[in-house]
Amino acid sequence: MRFLLIKEVANTNVVSVDISSSILNAIDVMIRNNHRNIVIEDGVKYRIFTVLDVLKIQRDEIDLSLPISSLKLDIIPTISADKNILDTVEYLNNSMEYICAINDDNSLFGLITHTDITTHIDPHTLMDNYRLIDFLKIGSKMKTVSKDTLISNLLSEMVEGFMDHVVVVEDMKPIGILTTKDLMVLIKQKVQLDVSISKFMSFPVDSIERNASIKEALEFIQSKHYKRVVVVDEEGRLAGIVSQKELISLTYSKWAVLMKEYQDELREINSILENKNKEYETMASTDSLTGLYNRYKFSELYVSTYKSMVQRHNEMSLILLDIDYFKNVNDKYGHNIGDKVLVQVAHTLLKTLRNVDIVARWGGEEFVILLPTADLTNAYKIAEELRYQVQELEIDVAGHVTISLGVSLVEEGSDMDEVINKADQALYLAKASGRNCVKTQDDI
What we know:
CATH class of the largest domain: Alpha Beta
Number of domains: 4
Strand order of the largest sheet: 14-15-13-16-17
Low-confidence stretches: none
Structural class: alpha/beta
Shape: globular
Mean pLDDT: 85
Largest sheet: 5 strands, mixed
């Protein structure tokens, strides 16, 4: 088994324009080449111009004669075309799904996407025992809408939420999907978007059952050339969405095991893996921005902590918290300041909590905390202290932020989803009560 080099995988059919070009020219080049994104050359840096940027331009009625440099476009990470494909793993936790492959002189060689990496993964190296249902909790955030939703009403939400698709459901069964690729076609055809999504959604939806193996899911993505897997339960109801990126992470974990089993055949990459093993473990269990545990690792720790609670007849509670008006922070100050807020709130939670407590980033601006040996009364006191400490934070540019918290009791016989649901209801009540407060399951 030999792992390919970047230059053997990268897509060299890349369209680019200089950053001094007008926005109109960039859009014309994108549409003329039927691409969902083009590369913007900015000196020694490279930026990406995507369909979502075009939608934002249309929504904000930006002057198309302005130079492309007037837009705040994301910088694409770069990697030498002569590197091994394993070296792309460190980029998978990055929100950017593109990596620029460059030559020795820093000129553009091509683009690597999650699709390119997935295409070169051999499904037969995966364990059939790994099932999609085991990983749905770490699946991509979903946006579901009804078939009567107007496309124009979705544009802002897709732009602000960095969503590349929405799923159309009826009785929670997926009946259609609209992706940024579909929107690119509509833009190219200059279609008015004040129409229901049912008119232009792709249907029927190709889906896979949640009991399918990771191998089957990967083969499904490769055969369909999709960026994501729509997962349904036994009755055909939407169970979740798992992206290529998440499947890739699982695949690399399996590859790490295979490398140890076939050391003779894999001698050329052993040195790479020995250096990266700890990095892989960290990536698999932590949130790349805050350094806290991620959802998957929290779920793992919840199970072991729950067993200990039952064995020792201890109390245990859970807190679900949300940063108030976080969207306003992003809108007013930008995502870089938003990221700073998330990091400083995360550090404050860690400093305030006890050593035995387990805290994770649950998703977006939400955090979840498990409190071993704490009953509901003590958990409420801890939550109040967290609320106070965050309120007192002075954050660069953004100033002060507040949090709302929901507290639930972990009772013997209840699973994690039930406990999370109770905390979520309490959190909803806290927000409805004016935010910057704590509510427990007893308040519901």
